[in-house]
Write a structure and sequence with these properties.
- Helix content is 22%, strand content 28%.
- The protein has six helices and 15 strands.
- The strands form four sheets. A six-stranded mixed sheet has the order 4-5-3-13-14-15, sandwiched between helices. A four-stranded antiparallel sheet has the order 10-9-8-12, with no helix packed on it. It has a three-stranded antiparallel sheet with strand order 6-7-11.
Length: 291
């Protein structure tokens, strides 16, 4: 009798006893009731230039990845923000001009390009994606299209029609496909050839060429957003801190009671940008106690 583990995208074929383990720890850290916090972050996956609500540690992993690769700050910064108990946590991924989505071009039996697959988001994470297209195990009149990351299957499609146009339509309309966009090349009539382990390439996260300008651009996006606290994902330099401090003072003078919290690595000192003599925020109290 067969047995082992299974996933939603990789269900067993043979009868037997299988188990599906779910990580309880990743769902333990969740949002609280302490206002709205915004954190600009760097990542190697996930939407760029838009506010994304994060409700749990599991959501960080699902949307931005749990790995701090390619100078990413998403997982650590957002997890720490959740530990503070905000009612709502908004992440805003920034990326430099070099950011690019990984892609893969599939061919037909005559070695002609017929289908292009592009990762949904820019970043070097998708350079680890690969695709297999093989006849079905149970029904060989259909083909199994599978997308993997390492030894983990991200997405699967079983179809009888593997023409480029049909595959592109099926993949783009499938709500379970959170990973790639598909586009037929040429007239779209080519039938995609079977492949095993065709790898994506060319993905760039855009984290290495970031400047203060990308962070300052977040201020414009925040103008129309309702929030209470802004926290940067890094110990920023003096010019960037001064820019955000000035911006916070301006929007506060315009009737938007927000504040920004900045960190400094070398003294472990935290400064509230809206500090007054009567300020009793946690960060300000911590600053006084440590000094």
């Amino acid at each position: 009798m067969a047995g082992g583990t299974w996933e939603q995208t990789n269900r067993p074929v043979l009868p037997g006893l299988y188990m599906n383990f779910q990580a309880a720890a990743s769902s333990a850290i969740q949002a609280g009731n302490r206002g709205t916090v915004v954190v600009p972050i760097k990542a190697n996956w996930g939407p760029v230039g838009t506010f994304v609500e994060i409700g749990s540690e599991a959501a960080i992993e699902r949307i931005f990845s749990a790995h701090a690769l390619d100078n990413g700050t998403a997982y650590t910064s957002l997890k720490l923000a959740l530990l503070g108990g905000p009612k709502k946590l908004l992440a805003y991924r920034i990326a430099g001009a070099t950011a690019k989505a990984a892609s893969l071009t599939l061919k037909d039996s005559s070695d002609t390009d017929v289908l292009q697959l592009d990762a949904k988001y820019p970043g070097d994470r998708a350079n680890g994606f690969y695709v297999t297209i093989q006849p079905g195990v149970i029904d060989n009149t259909k083909h199994e299209v599978r997308l993997f990351e390492g030894n983990r299957m991200l997405y699967a499609l079983l179809t009888a029609d593997i023409s480029a146009a049909s595959l592109a339509k099926q993949m783009n309309e499938d709500e379970s496909n959170e990973w790639v966009n598909a586009q037929a090349i040429g007239d779209g009539t080519g039938v995609v050839a079977t492949v095993s382990g065709a790898a994506f390439k060319g993905g760039v996260s855009g984290n290495d060429d970031l400047t203060n300008a990308e962070y300052i651009a977040v201020q414009g996006a925040l103008e129309g957003e309702q929030f209470d606290v802004l926290a940067l994902d890094q110990a920023a330099d003096a010019p960037l801190l001064a820019s955000f401090a000035a911006w916070v003072k301006r929007v506060r003078s315009e009737g938007k009671p927000v504040m920004a919290v900045f960190g400094r690595d070398y003294r472990r000192r935290y400064v509230c940008s809206s500090c007054t003599e009567g300020c009793r925020t946690f960060t300000h109290v911590e600053s006084r106690r440590r000094d």
